[in-house]
């Protein structure tokens, strides 16, 4: 890249710089992660002001600089404006952005990561305002898919000791199975003595496991079918909301262990 170059990207992080400028971190399809100055973006009459805010997708013309590149033109193609107006959606979107920032590479195409992030931001954007349970559910699935793209998604269908399938058991009262952050897998609670090196960090209920397993699906529609399959007719919205919050906390710790990052926006999820 020399002189000027073109890119299509989504703004994942913005920082005020100087009196009127803005520094934007952008995930682009063609060049991966880039940082660029948007001159005068904070002026009221700036044509680039709105295009340099969070979660705007732009076709960009960028001038190569000695230390930082400079955006000279931007044409918005997608606007996720509804993410900014809802605290739950905003927190979930920033959460996914932090993971993408940790995964993205610079100076090489990031087509898969770019498309996957846009897919999940679009799903969050389409949720009804105030649907916090939906935001966390879609956040959990977005996290899982991003981890899968990196090849480090949790393994939640088999026991990491026996390699045998673990299915949620709704017929046994208080049935549970374990989940190990370090091994990244489910584990039968009665088997941990066979391999004491595997620490069980969480105990999953049948409903926890059912939801966890369906995070790998292309979307969450099949979860409703699975609930019907198991003839579960006593699940309240409050109970399901609790499941998604538990799974988010598990995934947060999993991210910290396997990606070595702290999700700063998670504080808004806990609020």
Automatic annotation (TrEMBL):
Domain DNA replication/recombination mediator RecO N-terminal: 1-77
One cellular-component annotation, GO: bacterial nucleoid
InterPro entries assigned to the protein according to its UniProt record, in alphabetical order: ARFGAP/RecO, DNA_rep/recomb_RecO_N, NA-bd_OB-fold, RecO, RecO_C
Keywords of this entry: DNA damage, DNA recombination, DNA repair
GO BP annotation list: DNA recombination; double-strand break repair
Domain of life: Bacteria
Family stated for the protein in its record: Belongs to the RecO family.
Protein's job: Involved in DNA repair and RecF pathway recombination.
HAMAP family associated with the record: RecO (MF_00201)
Name used for this protein in its record: DNA repair protein RecO
Naturally occurring in which organism (per UniProt): Chamaesiphon minutus (strain ATCC 27169 / PCC 6605)
